[in-house]
Design goal:
Blueprint (H helix, E strand, L loop, with lengths): L1 H16 L10 E2 L9 E3 L1 H9 L3 H13 L6 E7 L3 E6 L2 H17 L10 E5 L11 H19 L3 E8 L4 H15 L11 H9 L6 H22 L6 E4 L1 H5 L2 H11 L3 E4 L2 E4 L10 E4 L8 H14 L2 E7 L6 H10 L7 E6 L2 E5 L2 E2 L12 H8 L1 H8 L8 E4 H5 L6 H21 L9 H4 L5 H22 L4 H20 L9 H25 L8
Helix pairs in contact: 1-3, 2-3, 4-18, 4-20, 5-14, 6-7, 6-8, 10-11, 13-14, 16-19, 16-20, 18-19, 18-20, 19-20
The structure holds one RNA strand of 77 nucleotides.
Length: 537
RNA sequence: GCCCUCGUAGCUCAGUAGGAUAGAGCGACCGCCUCCUAAGCGGUAGGCCACAGGUUCGAUUCCUGUCGAGGGCGCCA
């Protein structure tokens, strides 16, 4: 890599000049301003105090020395500002990137090996099986699936998991609600009042007992949720049943082990987890005085089970669950698991608007906004792209009308259009009798237009973006890159004709290489997000 | 009262493991189609990076506090 070459040239120069201390880790960054070169080091600023010399003076000395013997791929070194050392890299480096992209194709380009095959379990959505998925589940669904894609691309072995709370009080109430609707009696006080209950009850077979109704209702809700998720292209490897842990004794076992480990105690007729010992702000009840389990206990058993199956656990939770992070980590700690192996990602709320007005209720059902109806309204691609548009750390507002529009202010269409245009060039080339042939660095040197260089620079940057988005579990960084890249593609499309009378065949060929590589880059980005890359629009 | 996330252009948001002149899209205004999709491209205007301290050669970025927005603080799930 070029930055390694630069780092070692800095080290070598310092050694030869007798400047110390030489830091173990030399920091190289990409300057925001291109005039400052392609790579920049703050080395002189960092060591100036310890070296007892002025930073600018050190920088001048080092850059002059390196200029006397430039490393391969570097065309110039200069100093600027308070003491930055700036490197300008040869364009041939960028042509090599282009060749690499073409060789790797959309199945290999951008793939990294930072995951080292580690097993990571990504648990997301995990809605109660008591009704259809609604708008509140959408962000977690899109986010969880995207990080699963990204982690998989950087070398983790990824498992997607959905945890079903298929037992307990909520299921009882759900069953009673279905039963009431089936029999035409009043839905219980705290019951489910949604329209869907009426519809589902009508689909239910006659004459079922309450436990049978619950089983049927659970299966039906699961099926409904699976369908909706499939509409977004989301598929889980495991639908983990809470009930199964009652049946196989896992919950009993976890309670026993907590007691044996002195991590729980009896008080006021209830069993408590000593979570304060492990960093929580208060102790939590595991078994209520009436003998019922709290929601926490099966959850603890479930997480322990996941620890046995994976090296790294990722949970995607809504903002309303942030208060449970400390207790879950405490419980895992108490069971002897490393709480750092559990990453809990909190997604902030999303407000939906339609032409500027907040949408709280669904038009059709009059109650909840079903996720299904959002997908129907704006499509799977727009749903995913819009929900991934920004960091999950901040609350989001987006306009359904905008997301559904086929207009330039819609970011989904902007990016997909860039891909379609690249394909359109390919079709045109074929019609004109050109076929894309991979070229050498020398043949690619004809690509010197500002627009072309911009595309190459973005392609070069992309693996770093993927790396960062994986480390930070931040798919929106991929989105930002695809938008920037689409912008570069549209600019190229506008200014650089690939086929035309005043374009030489050599240039056409070189540009076709660029077009195909761009298509690969954009496709890789959209694939990671789970958004289609259409050939035409 | 305590905890979590956020506060950047008129609007929606990027950026920040501390770096040089803080970016994009939309909206506004002005331009650009005989030609691979104008679903596009370019330009102009628009900023005390909420506020106040601290650390640092350097802070929008880190720390503390204040203010503001949203979400949580059950033997509910």
């Amino acid at each position: 890599m070029i930055n390694e070459t630069i780092k070692s040239s800095l080290r070598q120069a310092m050694g030869e000049l007798g400047i110390s201390p030489i830091p173990s880790d030399i920091n190289l960054e990409r300057p925001a301003n291109r005039d400052h070169g392609d790579w920049s080091s703050n080395l002189a600023l960092v060591i100036s105090k310890e070296a007892g010399r002025q930073a600018r003076e050190l920088a001048d000395e080092i850059s002059e020395h390196i200029n006397g013997n430039l490393p391969e791929g570097v065309v110039g070194v200069s100093t600027a500002g308070p003491g930055f050392i700036n490197f300008k890299v040869s364009l041939s480096w960028l042509y090599q990137i282009l060749i690499e992209v073409l060789e790797k194709g959309s199945t290999e380009f951008g793939r990294l090996e930072i995951g080292d095959g580690l097993n990571v379990n990504v648990e997301f959505v995990s809605a109660n099986p008591t009704g259809p998925l609604h708008a509140g589940h959408a962000r977690g669904a899109c986010y969880g699936d995207a990080i699963a894609n990204i982690l998989s691309a950087v070398g983790y072995s990824v498992h997607r998991e959905f945890y079903m709370n298929d037992r307990g009080l909520q299921m009882q109430i759900y069953g009673q609600s279905l039963q009431a609707r089936k029999e035409g009696t009043a839905v219980p006080e705290e019951g489910y009042g949604g329209e869907y209950i009426i519809e589902w009850a009508s689909l239910m077979p006659e004459g079922l007992t309450l436990p049978e109704i619950i089983d049927w209702g659970c299966a039906h809700a699961q099926l409904d949720q699976q369908e909706t998720l499939a509409g977004l292209g989301i598929h889980f490897d495991t639908w983990f049943s809470e009930k199964s842990m009652i049946e196989n004794g896992d919950i009993e076992k976890v309670l026993g082990d907590l007691t044996a480990g002195n991590a729980s105690y009896e008080k006021d007729g209830a069993t408590w987890l000593s979570s304060t010992t492990f960093g929580d702000d208060k102790d939590r009840v595991l078994v209520k005085s009436d003998g019922e389990l709290t929601y926490l206990t099966p959850d603890v058993a479930y997480h322990r089970n996941k620890y046995e199956r994976a090296d790294w656990l990722i949970n995607v939770w809504g903002a309303d669950h942030h208060g449970y992070v400390a207790r879950m980590k405490a419980a895992m700690h108490a069971l002897g698991n490393d709480p750092d192996d559990l990453s809990i990602q909190i997604t902030q709320l999303v407000k939906l608007v339609r032409s500027g007005k907040e949408v709280k209720l669904s038009k059709r059902q009059g109650d909840i906004i079903e996720l299904r109806s959002i997908i129907e309204e704006i499509g799977s691609d727009a749903t995913r792209f819009m929900y991934l548009l920004q960091s999950v750390d901040s609350k989001q507002t987006f306009d359904l009308e905008l997301a559904a529009s086929h207009a330039m202010e819609n970011p989904v269409y902007y990016v997909q259009m860039a891909h379609a245009r690249l394909c359109s060039i390919g079709r045109k080339a074929e019609e004109e009798g050109f076929s894309q042939v991979n070229l050498s660095v020398q043949e690619l040197e004809i690509l010197t237009h500002e627009r072309e260089i911009e595309i190459l620079r973005l392609l070069e940057l992309f693996p770093e973006v993927i790396d960062l988005s994986a480390r930070e579990l931040a798919p929106h960084k991929i989105v930002t890159w695809t938008r920037d890249f689409a912008n570069a593609v549209h600019g190229f499309y506008h200014d650089c004709y690939v086929i035309g009378e005043d374009v030489s065949p050599k240039l056409t060929n070189a540009r076709l290489n660029l077009v195909v590589a761009s298509r690969i880059g954009l496709k890789v980005g959209l694939d990671l997000l789970g958004v289609n890359a259409p050939d035409k629009m």
